[in-house]
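Example record used in the benchmark description.
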Amino acid sequence: MTESTINSVDNRPRRTSLLSEFSKQQFDPINILRMLWRRKWLAIASMFLFMALALAYLSQVTPIYTASTSLMLDTRQKNIVDVENVLSGINVRALSSEVQVIRSSQLIGRVVDKLHLDRDPEFNARLRPPGFRTRLKQSDFYQGIRNILVDAGIARLRKAEPLSASENDYRLRAGIIAGVQGRLRVEQLPRTVVLTLSFRSSDPKKAALLVNAIADQYLNDQLEVKYDATRRASSWLTERLDDLKAQVEKSEGAVEAFKARQVATSGQGAGLMAQQMTQLNSELITARSKRSEAEARYNQLNSRLKAGDPLAAAEILSSPGVARLRETQAELKREEAELSARYFDRHPKMVKIRAEIQDVENGLRNEIGKVVQNLRGELAVTRSRERSLQQSLRELESRAVRQNQASVGLRQLEREAEANRSIYENFLSRFKETTAQEDIQDTDVRVISRAEIPGGPSSPKRQLILAGAAVLGLLVGGGLILLLEVMNNGFRSPAEAEAVLGLVTLGSVPMLRGSGRKRRDVLDYVVNKPVSALAESFRSLRTSLLLSNVDHPPKVVLVTSSIPGEGKSTTSLLLARTSVALGRKVVIVDCDLRRSTIHNTIGISNDASVVDVLSGHLPLEDAIYKDEVSGLDIIPAKPTAASSIDLLSSENFVQLVDQLREKYDMVILDSAPILAVSDALVVGNLADSVLYVIKWDDTPKAAVSSGVQSMLDANLKIAGVVLNQIDMKKSSAYGEYGSYYGKYTEYYQN
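Model output (structure tokens):
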């Protein structure tokens, strides 16, 4: 290896972005200019071709003149009377609808009739001379297509059965209207209430005349629509008012008749009955209060009588007669006490005083009986009063219910009468407003710029078209050149790979040609034909890999690629079989735990796999399979529910690699593609070198650069790259190094 090559390998942990370097190389201005210069005649030919086409177009085009007029929506309100217009003004949001009104067949038809465009050859295809018709069709592409269709229609009609004069006139007028619509353009200026009308014609005076006529006809149509709407509204309102007036009179008469019947039936109004009910309720409440009070007093007295202590009752104590007798009794008791101190019990004075006391006590009992009798009578009176008031209130409530039921019909009639009266008044007010508006209608749009006769043609713009054609031709030519260069998206030679990636190309593996070859056939080919070009390329790859670090030849080699399908696993197996054929003890470990393929390629089982070893379910010796063809040791893999990153970054995997390093001369770790998953970044930390496989003329350069940059950022030791599946015939056609293989075929036995 040369000194520059060794330095490129020793300085491997670069921190610059390979993808950035690739982008700079691809899109560097100097490189782009060089690419364009190499194929400059393609760009020049494209430019002249487009300019020639533009000149051919301009030579056949008749100048077209465009005249424009501007209309503005008048948003100022003209409230001559404070009423609402029968036909409201144009809403600013409805300008799109007004555009369709201006382009409508009805409005354009009036312009056609007013200007007698059926006599103009520019619009009437039947009057056109052949030369004029051709120039007109060439002057406007879209109008030319329309005229071709019209001419075809006329020719078809001439071959068909003859039409009546009215049918011919109708079809002719429809065609002229369509022609005017095709040349008319109506646009709304952004964020304004201005409409711009443009008309195209080969005659500048005719263009101005027609666009002004269309604008005037639009204003006239607005006035006519408003006048017609006002007149129709006035006529309809007049008829409707007569009907509404009759309905109001009928409904009000029904209300008065119902009221008269109700008064005759009940004899009094609802207001008087409500007053009576209120008064009765008040009296009933008072009667209930008095009855409750009388019951309480009577119950208290009755309970005291039963207890034998009637004098404790409040009613007894409040009686004047009882109070007087009690005073007399007390006086007599005092005299009795005084006499008892001086006389014996049988003394006449003692007998007399006791007789008087007995008379007083009898009087008390009689007086208490009167009080009880009075309370009982008072209670009976209050109860009778309460029952009488309740009966009167129930009768009055019954009459009120009947009267309220009758009032429902009255309220319904009153609502109908009020509704009819309100509708009648609204219609009467609207009728007066509409009548006042008939003579003050005005348009909602005004002309702010009338069309003038254009001083020059609007199309075609010769200088602009020629300049645009030249620029377009150069752009198309440059695009074709860049497209041809960009289509070369893959690496075609070791020199190109080293220039873009800055890495050594350790090997170039030719593609084994032949239809129907499977991956197993390719693996057996190296064993069966050890002196073939394919076998020699892998022996050279092994030698270059060992020489990538002379002092410490790599024992653990990681093989990976950018994307799936680049032959990474096949390269690993071929390198392993070639190394075994040279007497080395080699083991290959399938580290692609997501999409393992090695066991299917070799034809062995993966029941015992590296996953089982890393999970601790199986010893290492039980997971090693022997390749019967080459004697290669293989540790297959299988999908697992666990995270592959966790398994490959575990301490068990580190110990597994250390055990294999001690036991074998070479350990090949076949990992998943670097851009698909990040497994290779984890496994690469345990490898002495990384072998990066690139599919020749297929894998995008950006993908390879991105993958290599990821590994360099992870400080992995990339020994170099391998260009895989090289098509020797195509490589020779590109003038690449593959042409040398054709000169030395006698050295190989394929």
